[in-house]
Design brief:
Layout (H helix, E strand, L loop, with lengths): L1 E6 L9 E5 L13 E6 L1 H8 L3 E5 L5 E5 L7 H10 L6 H10 L15 H7 L9 E2 L1
Parallel strand pairs: 2-6
Antiparallel strand pairs: 1-2, 1-3, 4-5
């Protein structure tokens, strides 16, 4: 099972997800009174990791999801968005961004309804999100 780590005492509020982690991640830094750790399935983890869904939790620690639709209207827009991603943060995230920036997107049909991490994975990049820990 994957883990979603939220700031504690914020049920029903979107934007409180702190990090996502695969099952084997070291969570020692998050086992204190500041965080709420909730188990997630692999599918839920991938939906959030690939930015297809936003996640939050309720008072009973049930996970709740919202779709995060993104429509990209043209190749020019996609290229602009990809090139504007900052190469900052964890080394694995920066490597994902740099690799995505080298890809050719001319084969896509627009409008395109995919997230950037989905596009990256389709292009052979193993996407590591900015809030993903291992």
């Amino acid at each position: 099972m994957a883990k979603f780590i939220f700031t504690k005492n914020n049920p029903g509020i979107t934007g409180t997800l702190h990090v996502v982690a695969q099952d084997n991640a070291n969570l020692q830094a998050y086992n204190d009174v500041s965080y709420n750790i909730i188990n997630a399935s692999t599918d839920q983890y991938n939906d959030v990791r690939l930015e297809k869904k936003e996640v939050y939790y309720d008072e009973n620690n049930n996970l709740l999801f919202n779709d995060t639709p993104l429509t990209i209207d043209s190749l020019e827009t996609l290229t602009t968005i990809v090139n504007s991603i900052k190469e900052e943060g964890r080394e694995a995230y920066v490597a994902s961004v740099k690799s995505l920036k080298t890809k050719d997107f001319s084969t896509y049909t627009f409008p395109l309804t995919k997230t950037l991490p989905e596009i990256a994975e389709e292009k052979g990049v193993t996407w590591v999100g900015a809030n993903e820990i291992f």
